[in-house]
Structure formats: structure tokens, C-alpha cells
Specification:
Helix content is about 55%, strand content about 5%. The chain contains 22 helices and 5 strands. Strands 2-3-1-4-5 form a 5-stranded parallel beta sheet, sandwiched between helices. Helix 18 runs parallel beside helix 20. The two termini are about 45 Å apart.
């Protein structure tokens, strides 16, 4: 049987004539990590060089913004007292298990609504090597480039949304199978060991352990009493190792879904992320067969390792039950974790669920490959093992909390106030630099200023953005940069100050035009405008835990 085949759409699996640049999933991994990955791969064909060139450019940016913090963390680790502190660090951890496309993101979002959990966010995961300053910069930078939903479906996505810690380890030290799955698919086997942590040498395993503990350590600074919530599909094959890593202070939620849907969705995931590859993808049938084998081995290993822990350390949930009765299933999850699903957490979940629109994973029909006897056997065994043929539980309808409308007037005033403060701060910074002999316009400030204006506008409007508020914030960003550069010119150079008002006015405005006509300035202004608009116009679902 061939699944959803449309010959006219099989073009999507053909290799590209030119690998065009994209906002790459590992864009901010530092250059040393990228060089190690490129050294491990068999090479990049010329058609992918434009994509690679852009990736290396963004990698340079990721290197520059995080280099100082990487050095500080290295030095920090050399101090015996700090090493002892890290060794004694034993957080309480909850890990969501489930193979790719099993619905684990939805469960993570629901649990992340409870502020007693601390979970990594995408701005942290996409630059795992960074810390406070780098993460703040990335948080601003990413908005202009990321979509508001994931490439493969309509699930909310953005810098603030809960992310996968596996990406943090991929960007920090290359300790992930992500590169083999979606970047170097011809050499996937060279990264496959990171999926299960089997077949790796001791140095690699120790590196994974060290970086995982340090990433969790960074997450919990300032949140030491909160429970760490982790979600990465590969953790499904790492139950025993995670238990050793966190000294038994970890509980698990295992999410299972109809296996045929999981496999189909994984093939679509490879298709959705094909533009991130630097090598040709295998044939679609090879992709499907590889998914089936990895899926079966992952779930078998997970089941065996969970059984070895005992029933009091984990709870298993069917995805269709979570969809049909989210509040009831979450209650059972909390009981299984030994925690209280209190009124505050329930209200937060209802607010989040009420903010969701209709879920859609509809995509153009593509070739998903052939379902063979081996796949049927695997699917049948999983349905039996996890009781997936039974109908979903039916709970009472969720009483959603209505979401307040955007307070446009407050948003407009808030954006204006933020713009005025940024205008003054820009002048003060330039004046301070000038007293030290530095002559800098600091045009790059327009990017974070645009983001700040947009964020303040949405916050002031009650957390809901509108297109009008986005346009207003973008306009204010342009006004700030244009009007501030005139006094900046006067502070730094004060052209024609002795030639009369007309000449003074003309030459200093001419300096402003020159400042804005440069390519780099135009790009920065555009990024500031886009950031302001994107922040202030955001009106998607409530970001869990924010």
C-alpha cells in the first residue's frame, strides 16, 4: 500500500539545483562546532555552498555574541569550588518521553503553563552555548526571522516558547543526532549514537553528561526551587542514563500515539525540514524504513528501562486521551508525578487552551512511501503494548477562561513612552562615548530599540497585539532613528557650527542622510522595523508560562 501519493507533488523530494539560504535550525551554533560537524561529514556539494555560506555567517554571529560567556564558563569550571558545587547540584527533574511527532510538544506546553516548572525556551535552546547576555540578544534577534508556527504544523513557535534541550546540546557541543537527521542525512549514522548514547566513546558520553548538567544548571539560576521540565524525543531512549545523571531525582511522563500517524508525521517532518539539509536526502522509502526501525528500537528500549524503574517513577499517557480530556489527563499526570494540580495551574492551562485556535497539520499531498509488512508488524505490536486500539476517554468539556481584548489605546501610549525613553538613552550613550574620544553613531541600536518598542506596546495593551499596533511601533522605530541621528551628528561633529544656521542645519542633516544610506544601516533599520512590528502585532496563543 502506498500512502497519499501524488505524482505531481513528488517534486518536493527531488534534490535542489541550488541550496538557498534559510533560517537554519543550527544557525547559531558556534564556528568550532560547525567545523567539527563539517569535518565529520563526507563533504558539501557546490549546489549547497550558498546555504552553507549563510549558515557560517549566522554561526559567526552566534560565536561573537556568546564567546565571552563561553570563556567565563570555561574559567568557572576550572575553579575547584565551582566544580564541587556543580557536582552537588541535584535538581528535581520531570522528563517528557515520546518519539518524534508523538504530541510531546503539546504536553510540554500544557505542563509549562504551571510556573512551578522551569523549562528551556527556544532562545536558550538555539544558542545553548550562551547565557544571560547572549540569550537576551538572541531573544531579540530571532523575532524577525522565525515564523509564528512550526514548519510542519500550526503549533505555536517563537523565542519564548518551550523548546527542546537537545538543540541546546547540538549548538553547544554537537552532542545530538539532529545534525545527522536533518543537516547531513547521507552521514546520519555518524551522529546516530547521540540518539541512544550507545556506541559512543567515553569522552563523548562524558561530554553529553557535562553539557546536559551545565545547561540545566544555567536554566535554574534564579529558579532553584522550581522543578526542571525537559522534553526531547531522544530522551525516550535515554531513560536509564538520565536517571543516573540526575541521581534518581527524575520522574517521567511517557506519551504514546497511534504508530501509523507517528510514522507518517515523521516522514512529513523530514520533508518540512529538507531545506536545512547540506546533503541530498535519501529516497523517501529509505527515510520511512529508517524511521520505523528507529521508532521501534526507541520505544522498546524506553519500555524496558521504565519497567526497571518501578511504577512509582513514571506515568504513561495516550495522546488521544490528552486531546479528548486534557484536564482529566493532566490531573492523572500530576498524581503520577506526586504533585498537586492546583487551582492556579488549572486556570493557567484553561487560559492557554482557550487561546489556541484550530490545530492544523494539513499540507500538500506528498509521497510518504510504502507501508510494508515490517511496519505493519511494528505498529500492531505497539498498539497492543500500549492499548492504543481502545477508544479515547471522554471527559467533561473544558471551561475556557475568556481572553481579554487588546487595549489599543494603552498599547499606543506605551509604545510612544518606550520610543521617547529609547531616544533619550541613545543620546546619552553617544554623549558618554564621545567624552572618551569615540565617535560612534551607534545605528545598530535601532534593532533592539525596535524590539523593545514592540514588546512594550504589546505588554501595555494587555498582552495582545494588533496589526495597527505593529504598524505604529514600526513607525515609531523609524521616527526614533531618523530624529535621533541629527542631535547625534551635532554631539559628535557639529558640522559648520561657525557658518550660520542654514549651513549648520544643511550639513548635519546631510550627515544623517549619509548615515542612513549605507547598506548596513538600511539592513539594521529594516530589522528594527520588522522586530517592532512582529512583537507588537503578535496575537497568537498565550505563550505557556509567560
Amino acid at each position: 500500500m502506498r500512502v497519499q501519493t501524488d505524482p505531481s507533488d513528488k517534486q518536493g523530494w527531488l534534490r535542489p539545483r541550488v541550496g538557498l539560504p534559510v533560517a537554519h535550525i543550527l544557525a547559531l551554533a558556534p564556528l568550532d562546532v560547525w567545523l567539527r560537524m563539517l569535518g565529520r561529514a563526507d563533504g558539501i556539494k557546490p549546489r549547497y555552498w550558498p546555504r552553507l555560506a549563510f549558515v557560517l555567517f549566522t554561526s559567526f554571529v552566534g560565536t561573537a555574541i556568546s564567546a565571552h560567556e563561553r570563556v567565563l564558563w570555561f574559567v568557572w569550571g576550572l575553579i575547584p569550588m565551582n566544580r564541587d558545587r556543580a557536582a552537588q547540584f541535584q535538581p528535581e527533574v520531570v522528563v517528557i518521553l515520546g518519539y518524534y511527532r508523538s504530541g510531546t510538544t503539546h504536553l510540554q506546553n500544557l505542563l509549562a503553563c504551571d510556573n512551578r516548572f522551569v523549562t528551556p525556551r527556544w532562545y536558550q535552546c538555539l544558542a545553548g552555548q550562551g547565557y544571560l547576555l547572549a540569550w537576551t540578544v538572541v531573544r531579540v534577534m530571532l523575532v524577525a526571522f522565525l515564523g509564528r508556527t512550526r514548519p510542519q504544523d500550526s503549533v505555536g513557535f517563537g523565542p519564548e516558547w518551550p523548546g527542546e534541550d537537545d538543540f541546546a546540546l547540538a549548538t553547544w557541543g554537537g552532542c545530538s543526532s539532529v545534525a545527522g537527521r536533518h543537516v547531513f542525512p547521507q552521514n546520519q549514522d555518524r551522529w546516530q549514537g547521540w540518539h541512544t548514547l550507545e556506541g559512543l566513546d567515553d569522552a563523548d558520553v562524558n561530554r553529553w553528561r557535562r553539557l546536559t548538567r551545565r545547561f540545566v544548571y544555567k536554566l535554574t539560576r534564579g529558579s532553584t526551587r522550581r522543578v526542571v521540565l525537559l522534553k526531547t524525543p531522544s530522551h525516550t531512549a535515554r531513560v536509564a542514563e538520565l536517571d543516573r545523571l540526575f541521581g534518581g531525582r527524575v520522574r517521567y511522563v511517557h506519551l504514546v500515539r497511534e504508530p501509523g500517524a507517528v510514522i507518517d508525521s515523521n516522514v512529513r517532518l523530514f520533508h518540512a525540514l529538507r531545506n536545512h539539509a547540506l546533503q541530498e536526502l535519501p529516497d523517501v522509502q529509505a527515510i520511512r524504513d529508517g524511521i520505523v526501525e528507529e521508532y521501534e528500537a526507541t520505544e522498546r528500549k524506553c519500555a524496558a528501562e521504565l519497567d526497571a524503574l518501578g511504577d512509582d517513577r513514571w506515568v504513561r499517557v495516550r495522546f488521544k486521551d490528552l486531546k479528548s480530556d486534557p484536564m482529566g489527563v493532566l490531573g492523572s499526570v500530576y498524581r503520577g508525578l506526586g504533585r498537586d494540580f492546583d487551582a492556579r495551574a488549572q486556570d493557567a492551562v484553561r487560559s492557554y487552551l482557550g487561546s489556541l485556535g484550530s490545530y492544523s497539520n494539513a499540507r500538500a499531498s506528498i509521497d510518504l512511501g510504502v507501508v510494508d509488512d515490517r511496519e505493519r508488524e511494528v505498529c500492531a505490536e505497539m498498539r497492543t503494548r500500549y492499548g492504543l486500539d481502545a477508544p479515547p476517554v471522554q471527559g467533561k468539556a473544558v471551561e475556557y477562561r475568556p481572553r481579554a481584548s487588546a487595549m489599543l489605546g494603552r498599547g499606543i501610549v506605551g509604545a510612544l513612552a518606550a520610543a521617547m525613553m529609547c531616544w533619550g538613552a541613545w543620546l546619552l550613550l553617544v554623549a558618554a562615548a564621545t567624552t572618551t574620544g569615540l565617535q560612534m553613531r551607534m545605528v545598530a541600536l535601532v534593532w533592539p530599540i525596535g524590539a523593545l518598542i514592540g514588546m512594550v506596546a504589546r505588554k501595555a495593551s494587555g498582552g495582545r497585539g494588533t496589526r495597527l499596533l505593529g504598524l505604529w511601533s514600526g513607525l515609531l522605530t523609524i521616527v526614533v532613528v531618523v530624529t535621533v541621528l541629527f542631535p547625534v551628528s551635532v554631539i559628535i561633529w557639529n558640522w559648520a557650527k561657525d557658518d550660520g544656521f542654514d549651513m549648520w542645519w544643511y550639513h548635519n542633516w546631510r550627515n544623517v542622510r549619509q548615515a542612513l544610506s549605507g547598506t548596513s544601516s538600511m539592513v539594521l533599520v529594516l530589522l528594527g522595523l520588522l522586530s517592532a512590528y512582529r512583537h507588537a502585532s503578535e496575537d497568537g496563543p498565550i505563550v505557556p508560562g509567560r
